[in-house]
Design a protein that fits this description.
eight-stranded parallel beta sheet; UDP N-Acetylglucosamine Acyltransferase, domain 1; mainly beta; 24 strands; 2 helices; 9% helix; 216 residues; globular; single chain
């Protein structure tokens, strides 16, 4: 169990804005740096000429969009987001204060807020990252039985390199998922999820009789 960046991200060279990583050890430090560094280095925002921007997509404020990135139609990229090289933000998806390492992809109709997505990570359609507690208190992560504050009342998800959340998953605020882990569709996750795992919820289908009624 770890908050150390190296546990989740093996490829610092795949951060499109490498200055973000300078002197940073923990995940919550990296997330906190997004606003400060982008304000300093890219106050008007930056969109690489090779990026593909779909119809009616909105890129708002201080945002970095890297080479060959693809922002789908009707997507909304909110301030203090870094969309790395060859990344995808799918149709109708919303991204808020999020770092996407190179090659990370978000499918359609998803919300990813206050999050870190590793190189080659995947977010399935309909995924909603819960990024705030009901009581609006500071978000923490329990590791080895001890709570560690993440230093903010807004913190979504850390998803390690090449990990994947299936369609309609819902990670709770502050969830940390290691590298090469797959979370199956419609699974609610929270806390720390180790690397190299497959994760699903046990559910049983129930059946009852049904009449033959023609639908209108």
């Amino acid at each position: 169990m770890s908050l150390n960046l190296g546990y989740y991200f093996e490829h610092p060279d795949k951060c499109a804005v490498p200055e973000l990583l300078a002197g940073v050890t923990y995940t919550y430090e990296l997330l906190a740096r997004l606003k400060t560094l982008l304000d300093e280095e890219y106050p008007g925002g930056y969109v690489d000429p090779t990026a593909k921007i779909g119809a009616h997509a909105v890129i708002a404020g201080c945002v970095y969009v890297g080479a060959n990135a693809e922002i789908g139609a009707h997507a909304y990229v909110r301030p203090y987001s870094v969309i790395g090289k060859n990344c995808v933000v799918g149709h109708g998806s919303e991204v808020k204060r999020t770092l996407m390492f190179d090659g990370a992809k978000i499918a359609s109709l998803a919300f990813v807020g206050d999050s870190l997505l590793g190189a080659g990570a995947r977010i399935g359609s309909g995924v909603i990252t819960a990024n705030r507690r009901f009581d609006q208190g500071d978000i923490s992560l329990k590791l080895d039985g001890e709570k560690h504050s993440l230093g903010s009342d807004f913190f979504g998800l850390v998803l390690g390199d090449s990990s994947r959340l299936g369609a309609n998953c819902t990670p709770q605020p502050g969830t940390h998922v290691g590298r090469y882990t797959r979370v199956f569709p419609q699974t609610a996750i929270r806390g720390f999820v180790p690397s190299y795992k497959r994760v699903w919820e046990k559910r049983e289908l129930e059946f009852s009789e049904n009449e033959a009624v023609e639908l209108k």
